[in-house]
Every structure is written in C-alpha cells, then in structure tokens.
Amino acid sequence: MSEKKAIQHTHDNDLTHSMVHYLLAIHKLKESKGYARVTDIAHEMGLTKGSVSTALSNLKKRELVLEDESKFLSLSHTGHEAVHGILSNRTLLYYFLKDILGVSEEIAHKDSCLMEHLMSSDTRENFFNFMKNLCGENHKTMNFTTSFDFSQFEHQHEFEEIQIGDSYLKSE
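-> structure tokens emitted (172 positions)
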C-alpha cells in the first residue's frame, strides 16, 4: 500500500495573514534597499517598533527570520521559500479572479491577498498547471484568456522563482 500524505487544513497552517505581511515586508525591503531593520519594517507597515519586534520574535522562533549582530534582518531559506510560494499564490489567484471570474482589479487584489497564504504547495502546482493550460493551445477552444501568459514557463518552480517584490508579475 502506498502512504497517504497528511492533508493540512486551513486552521493547521502555521502562517497567519499578519505573519505573511511581515515576511513580505522583509523581502521587499531587502530587494529595494538591500537591508531590513525593525525601524524600516515599522515604517513600511505603518506600525510601532514594539509591535514589529513582538511579531518578529515569533517569526525568529519559527526560524523564518534571521537577525545578525548588527540587528539587520533577513529571511531564512525556509522563510524565503515561503515568500516565493505566497507570491506565486497571490499572482495565480489575482489573474484567475480578474481574468477568469471577471472581478474588478481592486477586488482581485484584496481577495488574492486574503487567500495567498492558505493554499498548499500541491494546490499551487495544480493551479499553476490549470492556468498554464488556459494560455496554451487549449485556451482557444475553452473561450478563456488571461492577461498573463503562464504558458511561458515549463514548470511551476520556474514561475515561483521569478516572483519578486510585493506585487503581481506584469502581463507583457
């Protein structure tokens, strides 16, 4: 008999919406400034340094965020992978909601932000393949089009690796 993978439920997910925003802020600051400090994160998120310090303590315990002796913050390997997965989820959801379901850009942005951290990696991979197939040869017969060409990527991992910043990949 083959072993079944344990299914993770939404309430089992260890990243909350708030945690995700701290990780994304660190990622964004590291990309734009080359460094991230508590002060920078507080400014970026419009929060107090005390609130940020408390939240970062939890992320450090989970080994998602690292702090060096000079108090500069960075994402651990696990934290970096989580951010790229979250950004991939957000991009997939955004274009699906906007282009396939036809909701406004504003609603697609809000809803993709709310859902981005809840999707499993298995669902992300299958969702990517679904969106890729919509852009491929079959999309003409299915009457679906998307403003982002997912078919330019052979594998979901290639798509995930190019996620940058705190915004969606732009359509060409």
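The mean pLDDT is 84.
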